[in-house]
Design goal:
Helix content: 40-55%
Distance between the termini: 58 Å
Structural class: alpha/beta
Largest sheet: 7 strands, mixed
Number of helices: 15
Strand content: 15-25%
Radius of gyration: 23 Å
Low-confidence stretches: none
Strand order of the largest sheet: 12-13-14-11-10-16-17
Shape: globular
Number of strands: 20
């Protein structure tokens, strides 16, 4: 069965692809299993050497990958290039990470000798989205490989071309041993991969609704899952914050990746007496984002990934209009074309489940005035999501206290936007999922900490 990719900027078809068949799938899983049996016995230094080679090979395809991403999902090519560079840097980071945590750990017990051995478990199945088509695969794959597991990935159909280029990079790096494989897989076949005895874990990035389904299927098969789901991240601008700087960073967060990032701020809490000043800075910052062809190096904001997304969020914004105190929208002829969605903001009359029930995966901002910091924190935490949050403040110590003791999220930044770093664990709480990627935590998500006791 075939499917096609479409350029969201032009609404024109890019390429046709073929889904993998059941027989082909069985052969791929078995080859990955054989790859695991070989890979798990490689030394850690050998694995690190190949990860460094992976970074080098990825760099050689950087321009090609960036162009494909820009065409397939509308990411500005400068952002796409930055995404690949981040992937390269992450592979290098893990190729150089200190290995003591991956060694045997001797522990004094009632045994004459005892230790804990961190052991890989097998094939880890990744189901990954389109919005960061290379980074989200690499973010999960690289630490998983370092431990000694192997990876199969079902990417989004929308970014099939980008995924297949990445597949070629891995094949070039690892040769005949199959440690990574892209599966152009129909959704109906995913449960059979999850339940396969050779597959030992599942990592999913996507919507909360689909995450519940994946977790249920994995639970039936007694497989561990890591879920990185949706977000309704918030920025809390405290009264002593630098409003101009805060507004600039808030806009950068909201508009990154054309407004299609789980960790971008979508709700903004501003002290009521400072609201007008903040809005002036906020609007000016939005207007600096040049909208245009994703392949143009000057473009900062491209289209949404699909035309149907534009139509859906335009409708949702209209439904929210009765809750607006006031609103603003960028104008321009380009917003009538393809999947281009005009950046906008609205000051909301209330913070309620109705006004925050939908994750606005587009360049639209909801701004909520507050009277006290306690009120702002209560509103911020009232969301079902808990991925990331940002605090903008002059008093850093006070902001740190709020970050650690009061904010319900997996990540908090102070005077900066939320973003991933290979040295820090990445993930959320509540309906934003569980488990962590990156850092040493990402290495050990799919690990058997095997206890060995010797009499």
């Amino acid at each position: 069965m075939k499917f096609s990719t479409v350029n969201p900027a032009t609404d024109k078809k890019l390429s046709d692809y073929e889904y993998i068949t059941s027989d082909q799938l069985e052969a791929v899983i078995e080859k990955a299993h054989q790859g695991f049996l070989e890979w798990k016995n490689k030394s850690l230094t050998d694995r690190q050497g190949l990860l460094k080679k992976l970074a080098q090979n990825l760099g050689k395809r950087r321009d090609e990958l960036a162009r494909m991403m820009a065409q397939e999902m509308g990411k500005p090519i400068s952002d796409a290039t930055a995404e690949i560079k981040k992937c390269e840097a992450t592979a290098v980071y893990y190729s150089e990470i200190e290995l003591s945590s991956l060694q045997l750990h001797e522990i004094k017990t009632s045994f004459k000798k005892s230790y804990v051995a961190p052991c890989p478990t097998g094939i880890i199945f990744g189901i990954m989205p389109w919005n960061f088509p290379i980074w989200q695969i690499m973010r999960f794959t690289v630490p998983t490989l370092l431990l000694g597991n192997v990876v199969l990935v079902k990417p989004s159909d929308q970014t099939a071309g980008s995924s297949l280029i990445l597949d070629e990079v891995f094949a070039q790096t690892f040769g005949n041993i199959q440690l990574f494989k892209i599966l152009l897989l129909q959704n109906e076949l995913a449960p059979s991969v999850i339940s396969d005895r050779r597959v030992t874990g599942v990592s999913f990035t996507g919507s909360t609704k689909t995450g519940r389904l994946i977790a249920s299927q994995a639970g039936q098969a007694i497989k561990k899952t890591v879920l990185e789901l949706g977000g309704s991240d918030a920025s809390l601008i405290l009264p002593d914050a630098d409003l101009a700087k805060a507004a600039q960073l808030c806009v950068k967060s909201r508009l990154q990746n054309n407004g299609q990032s789980c960790v971008s701020s979508k709700r903004f809490f501003v002290h009521r007496p400072q609201l007008d000043t903040f809005l002036t800075h906020f609007t000016k910052a939005i207007e600096t984002f040049q909208v245009g062809d994703p392949l143009d190096i000057e473009t900062k904001l491209g289209p949404l990934a699909q035309k149907k997304f534009k139509e859906s969020f335009e409708e949702e914004w209209e439904h929210l209009a009765p809750f607006f105190e006031r609103s603003w929208k960028m104008e321009g002829e380009i917003f009538s074309k393809g999947a281009y969605f005009a950046p906008r903001w609205a000051v909301m009359k209330e913070h309620s489940p109705r006004t925050i029930s939908v994750e606005m995966f587009c360049p639209a901002a909801q701004i909520f005035p507050y009277d006290t910091i306690e009120q702002a924190v209560q509103m911020l935490n009232s969301s079902d999501y808990g991925l990331g949050a940002s605090i903008y403040a002059g008093d850093i110590e006070k902001a740190q206290t709020l970050a650690v003791n009061s904010i319900d999220s997996g990540m908090v930044t102070i005077n900066d936007l939320v973003r991933s770093d290979p040295a820090l664990p990445f993930g959320g709480v509540k309906d934003s999922g569980y488990g962590r990627e990156l850092s040493s935590h990402g290495i050990f998500e799919f690990c058997n900490f095997k206890s060995v006791g010797i009499s």
